[in-house]
Structures are given as C-alpha cells and as structure tokens.
Amino acid sequence: MVGLDPAKIEGWDPEPVKAAIARGRARFDDRGIPSDWCLVALDENPEAAIAEALTGNDYACVVIGGGIRKHEPLLELFERVVNLVRRHAPDAAIAFNSSPDDCLDAALRWLR
Questions:
Q1: pLDDT (0 to 100) of residue 56
Q2: Whole-structure pTM over 0.85, yes or no?
Q3: Upper half-sphere CA count for residue 18 (Cβ side, 13 Å)
Q4: N or C: which end of the chain has fewer CB within 10 A?
C-alpha cells in the first residue's frame, strides 16, 4: 500500500484516517496475507521513499491510495507513483482502493 501519511498533513484531524488504516492492516493480518505500508509526507521526498519501499520486496500487487490519486493538485505525484511502481515492481499489479478500509479488497481483485 502506498499512500499519504495522515499524521503529516496539516490542517485536519488525522485520527479517523489512522483508525481506518489500522482496520485495513488488520484485514490483511486476519487473512494471513503479508502487506507493507508506505505512508509518505509530501514535503519529505515521497518519490524516494516509495522507490525505496518498492525495492525492498517482490510485490504481487501495489495499492495506490486515494489521497495520492483523488486530489487533483497531486495528479503529477500520482503519475510519478504509477511509474515508480512500473519501474521498481514491474511484475506487480496496480490496484486502487476507495478507502484505507478496503485496501485488501483492492489487492484481492488482482491476487486471486
């Protein structure tokens, strides 16, 4: 899972998103499916953090979160993230969630 770190976004309460991320992670654990979560801050070189995370393992699927994908001012970052996945995890499917709670559902569309 690649997404924005809710604790590092100013001007809003990150707790609901952090709770949803915890629920999403628990769903992977409950199914016994290993998962890695790369949550980045926009002002801390997110591309480098994502590239490093993608080269750490072989991934069957990379889920790109809506925080990166849906916010129009982040369109260029979204494009860079897709291309980072293509470059550093070329065998991985790319999936999109609708919330942190359904990351497992997004991944399972490609892991079956």
A1: 85
A2: yes
A3: 9
A4: C
